[in-house]
Model the fold of this input.
Amino acid sequence: MNFIYSRTYKALVTLPPILWVSLFLHLPYLMMLLHSFWAVRDGVIVDRWNFDNYATLFKNPLYLQVLFRTARIAASVTLLSVLLGYPVAYFLSFHAGPRKEILYQLVIVPLWVSYLVRGYAWKTILGSDGVLNGFLQYLHITHGPVSAILYSPFAVVLMLTHIYTPFVFLPIYASLEHIPRPLIEASQDLGASPRKTFFRVILPLSLPGLLAGATFAFVLSPGDFLAPLLVGGPSGTMIANLVQSLFGAAYDWPLGAAISVFILVITVALLAVTQRVEKHWSFE
Amino acid sequence: MHGARLDTLPPYKRGVNTVFQHYALFPHLNVSENVAYGLQAANTPKAEITMRVNDALAMVHMEEFAAAKPTRLSGGQQQRVALARALVNRPELLLLDEPLSALDANLRKEMQSELKSLQREVGITFLFVTHDQEEAMALSDRIALLRNGTLEQVASPREIYARPATAYVAQFVGQTNLLRADVRNGIADCGAFRFSCSRANGAAIFSLRPEAISLDTDSLRLADSVRFSASIRQQIYSGATELLELQTTSNLVLRARIASPAQLSGSHDFVFAASDAVAVSE
Done:
């Protein structure tokens, strides 16, 4: 019995996960960090320490352009997911009544469908001979297939919003469900109209969930490279696609690593900030 | 209220404020923001809000906690804030929904007397919902007794106790003996004894409080005294008084509360005044 509380046992139990994380997470991060200061000479990666990779990232307009586009797309996806996810979560939590469970499952169901399947679905919807174009022509809004819909930043935003809305919905829904209902009664009892009750009680109390969901979408969407690959086209390329090609065909690991480190730093900083704000906003 | 229906109005237009069972203070607002909530909803000028909030907090002795978050307060303090939050709006009616049920017994007694003096101070009608009969008796000017959503009786605590309208009220407020009797020409007969009453002929129920019954000693000779003898089945000591469970020769079981005598046993004579047997409806 005492063995369970012994040091040996604790070490034995914790060692495998520590090893796993070190080997497959910390070590690769370290390698990435080292590579970002190395260089490629005659098609070989050599450990010649320099800051050229970071300089390139900030000097080359291509990288900056793609970085800004990525940030714009991530911001749009976040905004749209919140605008879609919040009302759905609100409706479910406060007005769905007995249909709550089934509607909740319906929101979650897309998460069971493979990412790739959803990507190809958007391709068929947005493509030149796709559902959307057919519909627009049927309504005589357009007179031929519009090819600009697919392979654009717009298509990427659409697909990523579709993918991340359930993730944004979930924490918002959870925080709305946690609001004690007597608080809403109290607000109305004190003479606040439903609108005031929403803005002064419900919204502030659901901010932690909203922030968690928004962070989720904003941090995850820049790392996405499948959506731009499937529906983005050249004008919808995102930073992850650049990194992928630098590590692949372009064989410039040091530059790819530098970009990755840059994004990692931004992401971690963002998470640190939101975590602080979230803590400040939680009312336990 | 004032002859107008309230149940058809939305809650935020009723002019009634409520102290909720678990206070329902807003956790993201501090004490004074909680108290200011109703005034802000009514678009009261800022200066007036500050003044009235301060007054309300002073009234419940919570000024020093104005900047505290409700989660940092004890149950009694939260209770006071909830009271201030409701009273600051000067409602025409204050609804208190079992406000003391979450407090421990001592704090409860303390808050009871505080509530009572507060009500006298502000002069607003308090509608106090409680399941505790003792609390209802102690605090109320008028009690409305509800049973399954229908009114049984509305009266002052003294009247409700002395003149219960129904058998249910008699049993619910305090202890009582319900006597089923047959009335003939102004005489009620319940088997064990008879007594005069002013009921019409037929079956009737009377409520007789345990403390109306006393041991028959020679010093008590009232005109309408009713005497009976009974054996003592059980004696429950409770300090100043004692509860006796009596059984008459005709197997009628009665409870009597008398000033503590020594240990009693066997058969004794008891007496009560016929006027203490109050006719009640079913």
Summary: Chain A touches chain B through 22 residues (CB under 8 Å). DSSP finds twelve helices and two strands in chain A. Residues 61-95 of chain A form the longest helix (35 residues). The radius of gyration of chain A is 24 Å.
